[in-house]
Amino acid sequence: MPKIGQEPKRRAALVAATVEEIGAAGSLEVTVGQIAKRAGMSSALAHHYFGGKTQIFLAAMRHILNQYSRDVRDALTKAQPDRRLEAIIDGSFDPNCFDPAATSAWLNFYSFAQRDQEAGRLLRIYQKRLHSNLVHALRPRCDKPQEAAQIIAAQIDGVYLRAALNKGDMSGAADQVKAVAQALLEVKTYDA
């Protein structure tokens, strides 16, 4: 007889194990068995909850995106209206998402999005939300908020890419992106 209330906990454990397993492997070349073992359950149970590896990957991608959205929203809630840009950048590098396993998983999800329609859709949602948030924050601070938003979004994604590839010290990432954003705002003549 199934244990009542265990499904959400087990699904969450499998999603967390997926992020950790992809982070450890540095690729999507992981098996459902490896993910299930890391989560402390059988691969049959993992298949029961998700159906297959693609669905587990998509659930992990959604989890990272949801955590990222929460982190940015929390940072924006605490920010003064004229500090929205800095809050978005700080939220983008919150330790909840900006850790070695999550950045490695995120890098691999970019690759996954090139060949999976749903993963591509999730990535486009993330990109549009980030762009929209940045444009809103930049509108009162510069003449070309659309262009500046593209440059800052590319900087954020670039830092994630380097963090995943270098697996080194990631401290100071938000401050580095804020410094680039500030320099961009001071120059005021740029093209994306």
Automatic annotation (TrEMBL):
Residue ranges the UniProt entry marks as DNA-binding: 31-50
Transcription found in the keyword field: yes
Record pathway: Amine and polyamine biosynthesis; betaine biosynthesis via choline pathway [regulation]
Pfam families: TetR_C_6, TetR_N
Domain HTH tetR-type: residue ranges: 8-68
Keywords, in A-Z order: DNA-binding, Repressor, Transcription, Transcription regulation
InterPro entries linked: BetI_C, Homeodomain-like_sf, HTH-type_TetR-like_transc_reg, HTH_TetR, Tet_transcr_reg_TetR-rel_C_sf, Tscrpt_rep_BetI
Keyword Transcription assigned: yes
GO biological process, one term: negative regulation of DNA-templated transcription
NCBIfam families per record: betaine_BetI, PRK00767.1
HAMAP family: HTH_type_BetI
PANTHER family xrefs: HTH-TYPE TRANSCRIPTIONAL REGULATOR BETI (PTHR30055:SF234), HTH-TYPE TRANSCRIPTIONAL REGULATOR RUTR (PTHR30055)
Protein name: HTH-type transcriptional regulator BetI
Designated gene of the protein: betI
